[in-house]
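User: Need the bound-state model for adenosine-5'-triphosphate:
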Amino acid sequence: MSVIVFANSKGGVGKSTSAVLLAQVLAHRGATVSLIDADPNQPLSAWWSRDPRRIPDNLKLIPKVTEDTITEIIDDEASKSAFVIVDLEGSANLAVTYAIGRADLVLIPMQGSQLDADQTKRVIDLICREERAFRRSIPYSVFFTRTSAAIRSRDLGHIQADLKEALIPTLPVELTERAAFRAIMQLGGTIYDLTKDEVSKPKAAIENAEAFAREVALITRNQTNKGRVAA
Ligand SMILES: Nc1ncnc2c1ncn2[C@@H]1O[C@H](COP(=O)(O)OP(=O)(O)OP(=O)(O)O)[C@@H](O)[C@H]1O
Ligand SMILES: [Mg+2]
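Assistant: Bound-state model below.
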């Protein structure tokens, strides 16, 4: 099992969308996945209820998870599923702290603005504090969302260079701005059901989401192997 937590106190950076995409691809590849909706606005539950028939049986949703229940639910799901994916509210609260405390990997989505970079630094600071508190390392990685090949801002280039210089792990795959990714949250179901009538380029969206999931799975697999060697 791997507990993957999406966190960024900045709202609207793409936490819920990325969490849903990752869960869909992993489930499509046959893994058991538990999606934990720990945002009081319940975006994952809204996505789920739009078209539950189009969601594979090996992808399970746990709605209405609060700071009182999150630790127990993560542990419980981790004993049952290969991947536990946690979506959090875009603010700093106790549920965020507890989820990071249980994470095998924290993924921090961000866009290419300085404001995003500042919020990302806050999440990394929180992870470092929790590492000290729990005396364990908490792997994390930043990744870029909603990027566009057409509009690559100068800010984005600077921010990527800064992250590299600060040795902050960054995924080599971005989740680009795509109508298909927006459509999933609006229509429900998975990217594998989208037709050309519903969105343009569904195939490119699938390839992008799969490349993202491959990178994430690679990190979690390497960690598991490291854990085995250390044991
Ligand atoms: N890669 C993407 N391509 C296109 N649209 C996207 C992408 N990622 C997110 N969006 C859109 O951006 C908006 C915010 O995304 P999302 O809800 O995933 O962000 P969030 O970080 O979970 O927000 P919150 O902090 O409010 O929970 C949504 O309208 C979503 O459809
Ligand atoms: Mg969200």
